[in-house]
Amino acid sequence: MRLHRLEVEAFGPFAGSVEVDFDRLGADGLFLLHGNTGAGKTTVLDAVAFALYGTVPGARKDGKRLLSDHAPAGAVPTVTLEATIAGRHLRLVRSPEFERRKRRGSGTIKENAKATLTWLDGHGENLSRIPDIADEVGRLMGMSADQFFQVVLLPQGEFAKFLRADTEERGQLLERLFDTTRFETVEEWFLDRRRTSAHELDEHQRAVDVLLARVATAAGIEGGADADPVTWAHKLENEARETRDLAADDLEQAKARANVTRDALTEARRVLELQNRKRRAESELDAHAAGADARAVLVAELADARRAEPVAAVARDADSARKKAAAAARTVEAITEGLRSTAGGADLVAGLSWPPAPDEREHIRSSIRRWRDEIVRLDGALAESAAADRLAVELDRLRARQAELTETGATLSREREQLPLALREAEKALDTAEKARAALPALVDARDRASDAASAATDLRTCRAEHGRRDRGVLDARQKHQDAREHWLDLLQRRIAGMAAELAGTLEDGAACQVCGSLEHPQPAEPSELSVTKADEDAARVAEQMAATALTAATEKLGAVERAIDVLIQRGGDGAADELAQALTAAEEAVEEATALADQVERRTGSLAELRDRENRLQEQFREVGVDAATVAEKIAASTTQLGEIRARVAAAAGDDPSVEDRRARLDALAEAASELLDARDAGAGAESAARELAAKAEVLAGDAGFGSVDDAVAAVRTAARRNEIEAALTAARDAEVWARRVLDDPEVAAVADAEPVELAAVQHAHDAAAEVVDVAVAAASDAERRLLDLERYVGQLDKTAETIAPIQAAHEELAALAEVIAGRGQNARKMSLRSYVLAARLEEVAVSASARLGRMSAGRYEFVHSDEAGPRGRRGGLGLDIRDDYTGVVRSAKTLSGGEVFLASLSLALGLADVVAAESGGVVLDTIFIDEGFGTLDADTLDSVMGVLDELRDGGRVVGIVSHVDEMRQRIPSRLHVIRGRTGSTVEVVAG
Questions:
Q1: Threshold 0.70, pTM exceeds
Q2: CB 3.0-4.6 Å disulfide test: which of 11, 57, 424, 740 passes with 149?
Q3: DSSP code of residue 94
Q4: Phi, psi (5° rounding) for residue 245?
């Protein structure tokens, strides 16, 4: 692969278009790529990678920020690369996926990635589909994007990490660079075979496992067989039988002990119950004697409450009457204040007093009657006011109707003026449609003739092509018939010539000759190679007849085609196809136009009739509108006069109030308030009289009941709940005393009076323990019997099933062991899978190639040492890589190298890996490679050695690009690509040596 030209636009830090001429830059085989930090040196390498593979190395591909932030709005990031790969000169143009501003509105829109591949050598089809371009570049390069990033763009930092990495990380990088798919396939094949075998074994083992599980379940254990499953199962069966016998003996002994404890518990409970009853009875009698004084107080309290109840009832009624009188007084005051503030009500309340005087009641009633009479008169005025409102609405309606009639008249006048023109246009349209309908049959006939001629022209072309084929078929059939006939005649002639030999073939010894009658046949004719049998002749004759039949059929078909052609010519099909098509189109358009017009005859006739009817209706409507307008004007004048008279009478009825409604509402409120005042005064006077009478009655009742005052009687009153509570307490005390004396008189209680207290807990515990032992013994005996039965059944089934498993299991174990070895486990001492073994071989090749360059760059001191030992804690082996120091003879870890030594080792490893990967990729010639950074860690002598190795890389026309910040490299390398950083984006400058 050789790079020729790179052009970058709106890509990374490059805002505009920059171009790199690699042919000029790499003319000496070595050039320097330098610039300030962040200028875009790495972006140049990213652009090369993106042009080839559509992606960039490392973590930068995850950012998806290839569009330059410095680029102007609307710019499209583009990379163009011209290169020669595998002998093919090509140009790659790529644009990544990016977000651009919407042309209308706000926000952004995603632009999809685009790519083209153009063959500059003129061979092959240019490509524009990204997948096709990726396949073609991969085929030409012979390596993936990851391999290209490691082989062509040598990143020293990553190889330094590769040096210090563990075997897992190193293996991941090598798997990206070297294709181990086929070895992975082998591993997967063995893994699949083991899975299949395990599945087959599981299918057979499942029955055994099920039986073993059932045996374990029946035996009541969780673990599986600790030895041979069959032996283990029989052992469990014998143990279960012994357990069953022991459990039966234990059950009988437990039942006997339980019967004794049950009888003891029953007697203890009886004695304890009698002792408890005696103690409760004695306690009740003691409590009854102690509560005698309290019960006497309760008896007195209950008697006072019963005597005070009638007095309290009358006192409550007197208090209620006083409250009603006070409430009535407050109501009278409130109503009086309301009337005093209302026009017309102040005169009423001015002469009223409290308590009420006898003549005040009639004064209030006369005012109420006067106001209600006035309300009746105002209701009549309200009716007239409502009539006035309705008359005003009607007047508005009449005026609207008058305006409507005026507008209608004007509209009718305008329509009458326009109607004659519309009638003339309708008559003209109807005449045109009738003429079109009359001409339609002739136009349809002309269209059908034109359509038939066009169809005939199409069929004629087909028939003439068919005629040519049929004509050639007739010629072929005629030739075949002639050939068949000549063949048959030739065979017939040859048979006649060889008839003697045919007759000789029928002669038999002792039989007469069909020709001469002789019984002897001294010299019968012999058949020659040209002899023909009757069967040959018959076959040839049949072939001739079939050929004749085929000729006749072909001739008839040709005649039919010729007749069809004559018919099509008569239909006009021999005209020019274009002219016939144009004539058909014109005829169809004429028919369509005439049909459309003819279809309008009925509608246009109806429209004309409607217009004439409309003329008559307009005249009648115009007359009716005039009559209605005069009537409405007369009604408006009469209604206006009537409305004025009614409104004058209503205003007089309202008097000083704003309206009749307001006056009626005021008088109605006065009448209602006065009525309420009258009722409230009557109620208040009655309540005061009742309160005085009830208070006197309560005093008399209190004295009769033995109380000093009404208040003393009210204080002695108790609630019904309190009285019930006292009665219940007294009744309960009597009942408790009776029950206690009855218990103490019971003979059974008296019998245990002097007995010792019973300790029921100990007896109960002994009984419970014995019952629990019985339950456990019953469960154990039942479980032992069930287990024995299950085990006898399952062990018998296991004996039969286990016999078929042994050969299948042996084969699976052998296959599984082999699969483990291939996967780097099991008996594989180095813990190397098949892929790891292949990668180890590749790493060994890399170490050999890298050691050659490392030795030259380190003056023979260092070389790589590959180790295939297993890793720590079972990790895979084969990928160890250390450094041998010839000064000391010690092999040590690469982590112990200094910064400059790490650079030498990394560069050597990168170059060695590039050689091996290139060879692995089919010997691809890498004419252009890039080496990224690290030269600043070298001293002058070491730098000379490194430059010598890089000079060797130029052999054969290879171009080496070095990315470095080191100033000395600018002095050593005259050809340079300088990336210049700027506020508006980066640019490049090419300096050719």
A1: no
A2: 57
A3: E
A4: -65, -45
